[in-house]
Amino acid sequence: MEIDAWVWWLIGAAALGIGLVITAMPELGMLAVGAVAAAVAAGVFGGDAVVQVAAFVVVSTALIAVVRPIANRHRAQRPQLATGIEALKGRQAVVLERVDASGGRIKLAGEIWSARALDTGHAYEVGQEVDVVDIEGATAIVM
User: Fold this and answer.
1) Which of 104, 124, 107 is CA-nearest to residue 115?
2) Average pLDDT score over residue span 58-65
């Protein structure tokens, strides 16, 4: 009993798909799609081995050449939505207790935070608005 070429290509595509799931390498998924294209060339169009390999190479190369740069561009972008302490940096707060280099209290994003002044020679009085420069642990650094 002889197995048709398109079946071998589908087996190869399945193996590449399993490799994609195990390793999370997107290139394996693109190669799997190339193997499916070769299976279509063999099964539907009845192409010989040269046509099958050409379909595999062309589709796989095209996907890698087009999809990979797009994915790299998206991976390099910073998230547009800041969360956690990153979302608090740059916000304004109101001084509740005098803030100087040794400490104090502010109201930041509806919560009361311990704070200290960035400039050790400067103090901020009650009711004054300050800018949050950084967060160190549970202490806001303000100016």
Assistant:
1) 104
2) 96
